[in-house]
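Hey, resending since the last one bounced:
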Amino acid sequence: MITQSLAGDRRDTPVSIRPDRRMIFGGDYNPEQWPESVWPDDVRLMTEAGVTTVTLGVFSWAAIEPADGVFEFGWLDRIMSLMHEAGIGVTLATPTAAPPMWLIEQHPEIMTVDESGMPTGRGGRLGWSPSSVVFREHALRMVRALAEHVADHPALVLWHVSNEISNENGHTFDDETAVAFRRWLEARHSTIERLNDAWGTAFWGHTYPDFEHVRPPRSARTHHNPALLLDFERFTSEALLGHYLAEREVLREVTPDVPVTTNFMVMRSGGVADYERWAREVDVVSNDHYTMGADPRRHEELSFSAARTRGMAGGGPWLLMEHSTSSVNWQKLNLAKGPDEMLRNSLAHVAHGADGVSFFQWRQSRSGAEQWHSGMVPHAGPESQVFRDVCRLGAVLGRLDRVVGSSVAQGDVAIVWDQQSVWALSTSRTPHDDLPFHDLPIAVHAAASRAHLGVDVVPVDDDWSNYPVVVLPNLWLAAQGMTERVDAYVRAGGHLVVTCRSGIVDSDDQVLLGGYPGAYRETLGVRVDEFFPVPGDTLVTATVGDGATWGARHWTERVEATRASVLSRWVDGPRAGEPAVTLNEVGDGEAVYVSTMPDAAGWDALLAALAGRWGLKPTVTAPPALEAVTRRAQDGTDVVFLLNHGDEEARIGLAGHDHVTDAPFGGVVPAGGVAVVATTAEEARA
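The structure tokens again:
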């Protein structure tokens, strides 16, 4: 069961996706790609693997509506009945991610247009513009027909609107979008004078006489006004959300008792949408996540993204709608997953609050653009290591029903995420533009995990005042009221950590003058008058209090400690001898400024020093490579997920039953292995 009741238009009653309270396990199933004679065998294999829920219909618009206004549901009825007879629930997608060829032929104007003004060619997916009136009419007609047809089907457990909205159609520069963008700007800024002031259009003489002169930012010989780009990002997210809401309202009208979701892409490379904003509008937060196979620290990004998704769900459970059993097909080098990696990845999401683990897709495609994307049943068939691993995962998840509906205990550390800052940094030209936004928050989260401190990732608009420690990493943009909010938190006894590249601009992307970090300068007790980026992969070092050193890369600043004390100074680099990390006492709390980007060892040293100063205690005593996350089960049992990301076995003093081996836990997690230990308070003390 998933219970969520946050702000926005999410339902305020518990959402039970499976009445039997089983862990959701399955994946996208595309039976229209296979002969119907294969379907019974698929259902048999699903039962063997322990599948509880499948997603149907994601790309099936042409199969359901093969011609304009002609609907054929027979095949869908037959496959849904097969699923119901097998006890497998159906998450049914509205198939609007893939408009049929007849619609594109009749109405080519529905397609997106790139920055150069060229319409998107046929053959992809999500090729439609969210501002297209014609597309919206056809999409909603499809959604209504589908919903009315399956409204009473007992297999239907969840609606899945479209697919990865904003992925391929994240930006479009067509004429209908231009009109919608101008309307959006007028609603946001009220007058053209206000827009010109907000955007600083006097620079380069780009003052607009009226809204009709504003265009989406198509290709230009120079960089566009960053404030225009920032507003276009905001508009795009709202336009895409508007399409989701339009489909959702039809579904709620026809099937009011069936929850509705859409799959986010919360990962390093995923999406242009403000998912924290979108999360208020879904009944169940669900996410697609794919690791980058060539990244040796990909498990850190996975844990961060899962924690961020949990934060969107208000700390409650959520669904993993897609990930991969092995390799994907869209990276430059598509590496197969190593031994136990699929199990470890899957259970890491469950550890961080997921009540379901699903894959793209059930059966690996023989043809099409994703034929080399792994599936639960690979090309080799069920006589394969991948399918054996899928069955093993299904068995483990079948033993984890006790955690369904439970939450991860709130941590001591909150890392604040702000999508507005992501956009503001990515649309500006800064002193160092080759620094991915995600790197800093992921690094802080990973260090907290290695130290076994309870850590959450929370939206900037949430109430994080009750966390002992709050970290603002890369919060380039400070919305109105943020300065006062941060200062009040510290004065009330909070412990604040602000990193470089924070508090630099306001909501209009205008620099906050008087010295950096403008929004938080007084609270931090520092003043910076210039940034000094470090070229390439050069390592610069700074002191720790006991004479040891730690390293950092990419970024330094000329920091003047106006009121703050200095915790660390540079040993070398462009600012040798000057402050690197400072601490300021404000009211009953303390505010720390980290003016650089420490490496992993640097963050470990800084967090260890601050945890000791602020009295933070680890949740477990374990090696740093052993990630440990606890969910409190419905029966009051603590279920501890232990994920060994190291090359050596890890030992931990914990007693209980291991749901992975289905045997008493022996206190050892092998290299690359995972244990899920259900333990009572008495066992934990043993």
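The CA atoms of residues 350 and 356 lie 7 Å apart.

Sorry for the duplicate.
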